[in-house]
Amino acid sequence: MSDQNYKIGKELKHEWYLIIIFLLIIAVTILAYPHLPEKIVTHWNLESKPDGFSSRFTGVSLIPFITLGIYGLMLVAPLLDPRKENYVKFLKAYRLIKLGIFLFLLGTQLLIIAFNLGYNVNIGKIITLGLGVLFALLGTYLPQIKHNYFIGIKTPWTLANEKVWQQTHRLGGKLFLISGFLIMLSVFLPDKPRFWLLMILLIGSSFIAMVYSYFLFKNEQK
Length: 222
Known about the structure:
222 residues; mainly alpha; 8 helices
């Protein structure tokens, strides 16, 4: 294969560790399934108390299907993207982002199973910590993502101008990295303040990057 081309076959061979993580999610789910109650908790409120339930099969099947769907989409996206040639320029970052998403989904499935098996786990704090790590990872690698239509900070202005894309992702990377560390530290806060801080950081970072891309684009037009 040429280094200038993206091929699914090579990615499947290179990303064997993602396949192992997916199989691990399936294996843990199958092993735990007979020991789970017929009705399991699948959602928790702001105080980390159960407020949503589903059948055992539906509850434990959701994460495996989400994982498979995300990987399938991210695997074929470079072939569908009009800027497909840019993916080979940030494949390392792309693979690490996929790894972060897979590990987060694995952790989420383990938490759901552990809670419903009767283990005393604080879902809210652990998920918050995982989100913080994931955001810090995204922030680290956002500046390396080249102009494309599937992954990154996609606004009308970043998609229209490659220079705006690059500068927006530099700022976005810093915002996401700082937000990730703040989210991790927020595990020491009570449940409700921790949730609202999480929302403010996630929405605020995205909004600032979006507005920044608009003004950059206007400046480029001048």
